[in-house]
């Protein structure tokens, strides 16, 4: 498993070792021991989430506040997304900077989004099956969000504005 820290501290791109044979392939999609060895971070994932979306769907930018803050390990089981993590740790040297990387079933990349980040993704393929592990439980009262097109963040979501499909909740989010 290859771990590459992004320009944002504690935010990692993870690429698995894939073993191919006549039957297909095999890879470890998560190992707590390797994760902790490679990152020096402690995580304890307690909830797994899965969502399905069509082309143009943009989910984000989301986070949970306070004691319900969540780190997430995200990946794509089918299709391709542009995945975005925004550093919203006020004390961070990279406050309000973001990383955007393509995650697909084909490239099998994962992104580790630490606590203190907002997270979002947009679907680049016809369909996407999205899967992620969280280190804290969902708590509706702790939900927070930032509008995807916040000018301070200036995220290039790749698709045209008119192609984007957002939930009413996400359309009503405000700037940071
Ligand atoms: C996130 C979540 C939602 N739900 C419910 C609430 C709601 O009725 C329905 C859909 O919720 P949402 O519209 O918030 O789902 P969605 O827009 O997919 O939210 C997700 O977006 C990505 C970008 C993230 O980073 C995630 O942490 C999460 O916020 O599912 C849960 O029961 N548990 C959960 O953990």
Automatic annotation (TrEMBL):
The record marks 138 as: Participates in a stacking interaction with the thymidine ring of dTDP-4-oxo-6-deoxyglucose. Pfam families: dTDP_sugar_isom. It is an enzyme of class 5 (isomerase). Its EC number is 5.1.3.13. The active site is at 62 (proton acceptor), 132 (proton donor). GO terms for molecular function: dTDP-4-dehydrorhamnose 3,5-epimerase activity. One of its GO terms (cellular component) is cytosol. Pathway: Carbohydrate biosynthesis; dTDP-L-rhamnose biosynthesis. It catalyses: dTDP-4-dehydro-6-deoxy-alpha-D-glucose = dTDP-4-dehydro-beta-L-rhamnose. Keywords: Isomerase. One of its GO terms (biological process) is polysaccharide biosynthetic process. Homodimer. Belongs to the dTDP-4-dehydrorhamnose 3,5-epimerase family. Catalyzes the epimerization of the C3' and C5'positions of dTDP-6-deoxy-D-xylo-4-hexulose, forming dTDP-6-deoxy-L-lyxo-4-hexulose. This is dTDP-4-dehydrorhamnose 3,5-epimerase.
């Amino acid at each position: 498993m290859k771990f590459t820290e992004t320009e944002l501290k504690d935010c990692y791109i993870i690429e698995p070792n894939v073993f191919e044979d006549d039957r297909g392939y095999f890879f470890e999609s998560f190992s707590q021991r390797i994760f902790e060895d490679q990152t020096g971070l402690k995580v304890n994932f307690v909830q797994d989430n899965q969502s399905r979306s069509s082309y143009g769907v943009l989910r984000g930018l989301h986070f949970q506040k306070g004691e319900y803050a969540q780190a997430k390990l995200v990946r794509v089981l089918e299709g391709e997304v542009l995945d975005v993590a925004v550093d919203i740790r006020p004390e961070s040297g990279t406050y309000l900077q973001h990383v955007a990387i393509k995650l697909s079933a084909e490239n099998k990349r994962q992104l580790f989004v630490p606590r203190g980040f907002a997270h979002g993704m947009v679907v680049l393929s016809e369909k996407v099956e999205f899967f992620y592990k969280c280190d804290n439980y969902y708590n509706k009262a702790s939900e927070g969000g930032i509008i995807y097109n916040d000018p301070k963040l200036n995220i290039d979501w790749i698709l045209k504005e008119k192609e984007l499909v957002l939930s009413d909740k996400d359309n009503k989010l405000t700037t940071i």
